[in-house]
Amino acid sequence: MKLYQLINITIKMGTTAAVAQGIQHYYQDQAAQGKLLGVFFSDIGKLNQVVVLRSYASQQ
Q: For 41-60, b where at least 16 C-beta lie within 10 A, e where not — what string?
């Protein structure tokens, strides 16, 4: 059974580029678990929000 994780992160204003780069470096590492499916930044509604979506093949 495939599992999905949705992570909501609140960031400081003006740090979007640094956060995006940090997320990219983290998921390129071999030790990162799960498969990165998407990273979404808010620009409408509640600002300074990042949502990370990833999947896992199993619960282990």
A: eeeeeeebebebebeeeeee
Determine how β-strand 3-10 pairs with β-strand 49-56.
antiparallel
Dihedral class, residue 20 (left if φ above 0, else alpha if ψ from -120 to 50, else beta):
alpha
pLDDT of 4-29, one tens digit each?
A: 999 999 999 999 999 999 999 988 88
**Which residues lie below 8 Å from residue 2, measured CB to CB, with a gap of 6+?**
55, 56, 57, 58
- pTM, to two decimals: 0.81
The CA-to-CA distance between both ends of the chain, in Å, stands at 11
What is the distance, to the nearest Å, from the Cα of residue 27 to the centroid of all Cα atoms in its chain? 9
